[in-house]
Amino acid sequence: MNMKNTIKIFATFLIFSLFTSNIGAQTPIPVCPQTGSFTSMVRGYYFTAPTNFTICGIYVEDDMSTAFQAASIVRFTAGPPPAYSAVTNSFVTLWQNLNYAPNTMIPVPNIAINAGDIIGIYGARNSTTINSYGAANCVINIAGFPTTTYRSGMQFSLAAGPAMHDIWNENSGSIGRVTMYTNCCPAPIAIPAIAGSTSVCVGSSATYTVPAQAGAVSYNWTVPAGATITSGQNTTSLNVTWNTTPGGSVCVTWTDACATSPPTCINVTVNPIPTVTVPANASYCNGAAVSASSYASLPA
Q1: Domain map of the chain by residue range?
Q2: Confidence of residue 97 (pLDDT cuts 50, 70, 90)
Q3: Is the pLDDT of residue 275 over 70?
Q4: Could you report how far apart the first and last alpha carbons of the chain are, in Å?
Q5: CATH code of domain 26-182
Q6: What is 199-273's CATH superfamily?
Q7: Does pLDDT of 98 surpass 90?
Q8: Measuring CA to CA, how many Å separate 127 from each of 37, 68, 157, 266, 277?
Q9: CB of 124 within 8 A of CB of 133?
Q10: CA quadruple 190, 193, 197, 201: dihedral positive or negative?
Q11: Does the pLDDT value for residue 122 go beyond 80?
Q12: Mean pLDDT score, 279-292
């Protein structure tokens, strides 16, 4: 093989590698460079979302430590956190991971943020709660919108758990450097169909199946009241016992590393066991044929 062909093959491989390495990659929303540090209590920042976007990863910057990460995302429900020493617990925890060992981005199940949401991002390293500080009022770029962040935190260790609480702001102070990631992989699509019986009798059992989905980490089945899952939850094949009428929908979703699919359902009708009433004055000879129309049955 001559040198020209070798170079061409190498260039092709390099282009392919660069292309494939970006498939499904997340995009960081960088915070300002380190200006200082702090240890013992968790710090971060809050901001008002300028547009709709999705958070799919968090990384506590490692300038001060490469030990495990503890991080949390909250949405405030009654305005921004108050100025220290006042605190608030009027928020919803959207996600947290209190002990993530790899020194890499922490995957976050796609969290949809809406324009106008007041979001708090918090994180530190190690059980001693080591924070890397960035400039006060650091401006980050969210989907092309310059967005000001404001220092926020609590006077406790996040790694010690159980979650963020008693949150305050110091709007003119240095922020805790925690990077968000966006441009997340899409949610999985619904499974096309469920295979299984759509008409059963009370007391009977039936099996419902779906094809395996590439990248699935779990399956979640639901059944209506009066039905019991006897086996198969979190698999592609579910066994159900139908205890009462009238039936209802058997549904399944699946989850990959990013999110959960919409549900796929099959409607099942549960029929009562037929009863037969024999006329009181009926008499038949042994071995004689009897017409089914001679009897009344419920249901007909």
Answers
A1: 26-182, 199-273
A2: very high
A3: yes
A4: 82
A5: 2.60.120
A6: Immunoglobulins (2.60.40.10)
A7: yes
A8: 15, 8, 8, 49, 75
A9: no
A10: positive
A11: yes
A12: 69
